[in-house]
Design a protein that fits this description.
The protein is an alpha+beta fold. It has 2 helices and 7 strands, in the order E-E-E-E-E-H-E-E-H. A 4-stranded antiparallel beta sheet has the order 1-2-3-4. It has a 3-stranded antiparallel beta sheet with strand order 5-6-7. The protein starts with a strand and ends in an 8-residue tail after the last helix. Keywords: Coiled coil.
């Protein structure tokens, strides 16, 4: 069975046999150009052979954990980079299953040549070298970034919606606070008026109290005069007549 690495735009195939030499492993690059129409036979129109990378590797030399002198390397996403830190012979069944599930959308093969001009831009090291690859070698990475962008866009829209809700709530709260402030100001004004009325009533009550006290004094004085006047009249009415002189 060949090893196949796929993504939405590129299919990389590592064949177990070379068509010419019947030995080694050949890297092929295929590009999806358009969907197949109903009138076309299966396999025609939907896939077109783009180019051969020209890498022939013995089956025993194919490995995930490549060395600096290997003519090929792996471009991979962060999600499966840990699977490329060990050899296939060291894989457990669980690790092999994980590799089969994840490799299709997260990895592409690229030609590698040592060089002193450019740094090796892989997840597994910074050895000097460069890739010989097509412009579509980073399709898996681009797909991953597009998914990340979509996720961030959704999150941004959620935050915008939340901000809109909070803005509406804040506006309503501000309007309610303004109404309460007006009501409080009116209540304070009414309280001031009532306080003025109370002070006025207190002053009038004091005046009435003073007048009542004065009235009682006048009444007491009148009563005293009447009493005295009554006593004088009584004495004159019932007083003894003077006796005749003998």
């Amino acid at each position: 069975m060949p090893w196949t690495v796929r993504n939405p735009h590129i299919r990389k195939e590592i064949s177990s046999t070379d068509r010419k030499t019947q030995t080694g492993v050949v890297f092929h690059e295929w590009q999806i150009v358009r969907p197949r129409t109903k009138s076309e036979p299966s396999g025609i129109g939907n896939v077109e052979k783009n180019s051969r990378l020209g890498i022939t590797v013995e089956p025993s030399q194919v490995r995930l954990k490549t060395n600096d002198d290997d003519p090929y390397t792996w471009e991979k996403t962060e999600a499966i980079s840990h699977l490329f830190t060990q050899n296939l012979s060291e894989f457990s069944i669980k690790s092999l299953q994980k590799l089969c599930e994840c490799i299709e959308d997260n990895c592409v093969a690229a030609t590698w040549k040592p060089s002193s001009k450019a740094p090796r831009t892989t997840l597994r090291g910074n050895v000097q070298g460069h890739f010989v690859k097509s412009d579509v070698s980073f399709t898996a990475r681009i797909t991953e970034l597009e998914k990340t962008e979509e996720s961030l866009a959704r999150e941004l829209n959620e935050w915008k919606a939340q901000a809109s809700i909070e803005s509406e709530g804040r506006q309503k709260a501000e309007e309610e606070a303004a109404r309460m402030e007006i009501a409080l100001r009116e209540a304070r004004e009414d309280g001031g008026k009532l306080e003025g009325y109370i002070q006025k009533w207190k002053a009038e009550a004091k005046i009435s109290s003073d007048n009542a006290a004065k009235s009682r004094e006048v009444i007491d004085a009148i009563l005293a005069l009447l009493k005295e006047f009554g006593s004088n009249i009584q004495e004159e009415s019932f007083g003894l007549k003077p006796s005749p002189q003998t």
